[in-house]
Specification:
Rossmann fold, OB fold (Dihydrolipoamide Acetyltransferase, E2P), 8 helices, about 35% strand
Length: about 375
């Protein structure tokens, strides 16, 4: 078992009357790529800042490598931080930007040269040592900021939305680069983002946060396929959520839920919320749903609803459909663009089917409102 690199023990942070982080406990293993994911105002950046020493907890304890660092300033913690703003020195060239921390620690000159070269190789910027930040693109500047942090060989690297200022194509490229770098250096990365695809692409584990608490913690696939709450189901990817009531469970391991706006659907009993016997929201991911013209009967063992296409969108890799069911609910369907079949047109009547094992259920949450920015 890997050692625990970062431990938060019942940490709370208040700003006046506002509780930004609420009694949060968390263990992050050595060498893990761990993401704190959630909307603005959920407490993820405040949590990162308490790990880095930029904020003091109102209550609770922060451990790094088993050592209580709650009262230590940032420079006495074995961590480095990469921010969205890069924070490079414009008057220094790239070499001196990367070497800055080593010079402050009075590392020998030869060792500085060796370590800077290694850091530049790691971020794929060899040959850029003499350039100034203003002569580089945003993506290159972000790599310099990363090299400057890695050259210090911290035990933990904190990354606060570091790709937020980049365009979409470059952001996707840098996601893969960050994952490669983390695997190569083997140190613990703790990454803050509101972008669920970003978190899922890079992370070993994800903590989905809301209102200063962790709503769900786990590996990306587990959190995506088995969301624990209505908020997680809606925030991590797209979900179709249909209101219904649990009617029965049988010996086959399946439960039946009567939809408020439609027929009954079945799902595995172990995908019901613990102890659920009444009202639930049944979910299925859009890519798990098949769509066919009305009258084409799907397999008898599948969940089936009928409806009418209200919107059809072509986005290259897939077609996306909005379908209004006979009971008035709206479902989203993603169909991979294989170019082999005719796509249903707007206004066409269709039948939607999906496997019971691709169905999940969550308890309704009455307080799902848009979160305000953390500031």
């Amino acid at each position: 078992m890997p050692e625990v690199d970062v431990r938060l023990e019942r940490v709370t942070k208040r700003f006046g009357e506002v509780v930004a982080v609420d009694d949060l406990s968390l263990d992050i293993a050595e060498g893990e790529f761990f993401s704190l994911l959630g909307p603005s105002g959920c407490g993820k950046t405040t949590t990162l800042r308490m790990i880095g020493g930029f904020e003091d907890p109102t209550m609770g304890t922060v451990y790094l490598g088993g050592r209580d660092v709650t009262d230590l300033p940032p420079y006495r913690r074995d961590v480095n931080t990469v921010f969205q703003s890069y924070a490079l020195f414009p008057h220094l060239n790239v070499f001196e930007n990367v070497a800055f921390g080593l010079r402050r620690r009075k590392v020998p000159k030869d060792e500085i040269a060796t370590r800077v070269r290694e850091a530049m190789r790691l971020v794929d910027l060899e040959g850029f040592e003499e350039r100034r930040p203003a002569q580089m693109s945003g993506g290159q500047q972000q790599r310099v900021a990363l090299a400057r942090a890695l050259v210090n060989r911290p035990k933990v690297l904190l990354l606060d939305e570091p790709l937020g200022a980049l365009d979409l194509k470059l952001r996707k490229q840098m996601q893969l680069e960050l994952k490669r770098i983390q695997q190569e250096v083997g140190i613990t990365f703790i990454y803050v983002t509101h972008d669920q695809e970003e978190a899922m692409t890079m992370s070993n584990r994800i903590a989905v946060m809301r209102h200063g608490r962790i709503e769900q913690l786990g590996e990306p696939e587990a959190v995506y396929e088995n969301p624990a709450t209505e908020f997680v189901a809606g925030f991590l990817g797209a979900s179709n959520l249909l209101e219904g009531e649990v009617k029965e469970t049988n010996g086959s391991g399946l439960a039946t839920v009567l939809l408020t706006a439609g027929p009954s659907v079945r799902l595995p009993v172990d995908r019901l919320p613990a102890g659920a016997t009444g009202r639930v929201k049944v979910g299925v991911r859009p890519e798990k749903v098949s769509i066919a013209p009305e009258g084409e009967a799907g397999p008898a063992d599948r969940n089936t609803v009928t409806g009418r296409v209200t919107m059809s969108t072509y986005i290259g890799v897939s077609h996306q459909f909005k379908v209004q069911t006979a009971g008035g609910a709206e479902l989203t369907v993603y169909v991979q663009n294989l170019g082999a079949e005719r796509s249903p047109a707007q206004g066409e009547s269709v039948v939607l089917t999906w496997k019971p094992e691709h169905t999940f259920a969550v308890e309704p949450q009455e307080d799902l409102t848009s979160e305000e920015d953390e500031g």
